Amino acid sequence: SYYLKESKGSRRWLLFLEGGWYCFSRENCDTRYGAMRRLMSSREWPATRVGTGILSSQPEENPHWWNANMVFIPYCSSDVWSGASSKSEKNEYAFMGALIIQEVIKELVGKGLSTAKVLLLAGSSAGGTGVLLNVDRVAEQLEEMGYQGIQVRGLADSGWFLDNKQYRRTDCIDTITCAPTEAIRRGIRYWNGIVPERCKLQFKEGEEWNCFFGYKIYPTLRCPVFVVQWLFDEAQLTVDNVHLTGQPVQEGQWLYIQNLGRELRNTLKDVTASFAPACLSHEIITRNHWTDIQVKGTSLPRALHCWDRSLHESNKNGKAPLKGCPIHLIDSCPWPHCNPSCPTIRDQFTGQEMNVIQFLMHMGFDVQKMAQQQGLEPSKLLGMLSSGN
After folding, report:
1. Smallest Cα–Cα separation from 162: which of 225, 249, 232, 219?
2. Which of 92, 229, 258, 386 is packed most tightly, with the most Cβ within 10 A?
3. What does 112-175 look like in DSSP terms, one character per residue?
């Protein structure tokens, strides 16, 4: 099932894969079915939906894509859009994420996709990882159907996870406590998950789980992909067992968080088109404030527009990047929310908004000590933090 907003005059199509974690065993899929039914069954889905962020048809909210044909594909497969297994004697659940995408493409060809110039496969969270896993397959499917002229591209939001060591190791009981690699290892077997052939060839048999991690699959992709990733992603911190509730963060956690930002920044250095703000958040492209966030003075819609143009230009003449139109945007400041355009943070208990300094203090950030290390006056450091330099 999917939602469609047609835009008859446009030859641009945006297909969006919804996110929402996953489950990887009979037990935690049963729990998910009890608690989050809409992510496992279409029975309670609304008849219509309103698009927000990059799916909005309002030019103020969506300056460059408002006029495209929009397709929202809800997430009911719980398999990071990778599964290809029907319900069987041994498995109560069907996992068909990869097949759902193929069926939607087949159906859309009859609704105007056949004359498309550009198809942007976008997604957030598990949907963002789903983009990395499926974008080349979508391109191949359209080629096989005889539509070689459609340029297929990917936009992966908050789906670029690291297979790093957890801050505190915990046993793999449910989705939240399980280390990222272990959850995917179990999941890929449970879902009969499929990964792109070119990525699979890079790893030994049984090691296909590696392809769920952005920095490992990205070099194998043929289609251009734009990666949007918060440097301090809340879902990543959750699976790494860093919980930022109530109590000030201990020094070990604080160092772990800063190191996470550094590691993530490193994995993005060879990603041609990227937007990575130093914020603590998760998902952005369908949020209505997505136009407000900037990295080095450039907003995300602007960076996507520049990327569109660069792909258009390089098709024509392979020229160097466009002047004044950057597409590789990664914050270099080292702390969560050191970028003043980050989304507002609320205290999880009181619900009150916090500014950067309140937030850092709340996290146990020692201004005196940090200033000393940086060789600054404490007041100067506070000034720099509040202005985001």
Report:
1. 232
2. 229
3. TGGG-SEEEEEEETHHHHHHHHHHHHHHHHHHHTT-TT-EEEEEEES--------SS-----ST
Same-domain pairing of 265 and 361: no
Q: Which is nearest to 37 in space by CA: 72, 75, 85, 83?
A: 75
Residue 154 has pLDDT above 90, yes or no: yes
Task: Report the domain count for the chain.
Answer: 2
- Give the residue with greater pLDDT, 378 vs 139: 139
Residues 356 and 339 in one domain: no
Residues 159 and 175 in one domain: yes
Q: How far apart are CA 67 and CA 50, in angstroms?
A: 15
Same structural domain for residues 338 and 349? no
Question: Are 44 and 162 part of one and the same domain?
Answer: yes
Same-domain pairing of 227 and 255? yes
Q: Tens of pLDDT along 289-347?
A: 999 999 999 999 999 999 999 998 776 655 566 788 999 999 998 888 889 899 887 76
Q: CATH number of the domain at 281, please.
A: 3.40.50
| Active-site annotation, residues | 125, 233, 282
**Per-residue pLDDT reduced to its tens digit, 360-380:** 777 777 777 777 877 888 777
In terms of residue numbers, what domain contains 73?
3-343
- Here the tokens at position 335 are 């702390």
